[in-house]
Amino acid sequence: MSSEWLQALTAWLGSNPGWVSVALFTTAFLESLALAGILIPGVAIIFAVAALAGQVSIPILEVLFWAGAGAVAGDSISFALGRLFQGRLDKLWPLNHFPGFIAKGEAFFHMHGGKSVVIGRFVGPIRPIIPLVAGAFLMSWRRFLAFNLSSAIAWAPTYVLPGYLVGSAVASDFEPPAHFYPVIGISTGVLLLIYLLLIRFQLGLGHSSRLYHWLAGLMARYHTTHRFWRLYTSQRPSQAGEFPLPSLSLALGAGALFMILGQLATATRVFTPFNNLTLEWFVQLRNPLLDPVMLLLTLLSDPPVLLAAAVLAALALGMRGFYAAALHIAGAALLATVTVWAFKHLSAVPRPDIVLGPPASGAFPSGHTTGITLFSALTASFVARESRHRQRWRYYLLFSLPIVLVVVSRLYLGIHWFTDVLAGLLLGLSISGLTRASYSRYDNIPLTTDSSTLAAGIAWVLYTIWYIGHHWSEAVLMYSPAG
Q1: Is 187:260 a contact under the CB 8 Å cutoff?
Q2: pLDDT tens for residues 277-311?
Q3: Labelling 308: which of 143, 200, 338, 416 has CA 20 to 30 A away?
Q4: Residues 270 and 402 in one domain
């Protein structure tokens, strides 16, 4: 598709803004459709149409809905075509002109199973092929729809928001602060690098990936002489010489997203309608029966409670000789505390004014969300590292539940905007990734438990019970609705 054609399309849509939502749905549908997605430069068209949507002030939720609905519909049709033409996919036009796509899609599906529907939505040219292959391999409709819907929820913001934000900035004659574009540019460059290395080139994160083999070759060559590799190389017997690529990718990726969100949330009003809509929804949800539950969840994630857990864990590990683990836990807690304080002080974002006694500190980012994310992510990583590789996802899923519950409690009580808790989540993930990357040097030391660990756990539970009992009445008054 030539640039002149795209310019003509955007010009027509600019004159007929009522068709922008239809164009978003149609483009996302065709870009996800197996037979058309190979030929259509859907990413460029989605960016252009999303920018127009931002310029004409179409609500962001409406934009995300139509783009996500189009992607779901396109993948569903592709899945149905795969079931219909199973065994004959390589004979369909235009797939018969791209025989390598089917082979790559089948290999990808065999490697990742049902998760390939989620992963494949973000992976280069094979993205429209994966639903087709899933249908040909007779994946159940119920399972496919679950993967299809969940991946579309992440896909729509990833592909639509950049163009929408650009269009909104142009329409509002936005005057950014001096550091706005450098921060956005560097953060976007980091994300693009991670995308190119790990997704677009399909290098992956596993031990069998090309990127790991390349890094292993470098470490085998320079391990004894180069200080960088000595510092950031794991010596676990089963994974000797592994570079902590997943943890570093998490730290850099989440940190870059946090910086982009921070610039947009504090220097622009792009997210204001969505923040207000979320706040109003939770205000309508408030119920006297739910209030004590949400209050308990938010008190469990208060900074004194989480810092007490970090101090007791560090003391228990240090007394048993696990000095590296103790220092990393203490360092992560200190880094999170200082970083949250600094950003709250610098951004000075006011909190929603709907409770009697909102905290005096700034709203951005949510310290409770940052703390519980760091606590849960590090706990999950320390527990999962002692289990089999295929079972680790269960621990990460289990320890993600406290994060979700605390996020909901902060939004329910009306003391944070949605962007505050999202920023806290990203900041917590970034610090936990950085901590895990550094600690990977000591992964050869198993962190077994004993009576001191049990004593630290009991002490933390007793302190938490005392803390909640001591602050309950004050919290009930503080978080009562103002109206």
Answers
A1: yes
A2: 888 888 888 888 888 999 999 999 999 999 999 99
A3: 416
A4: yes
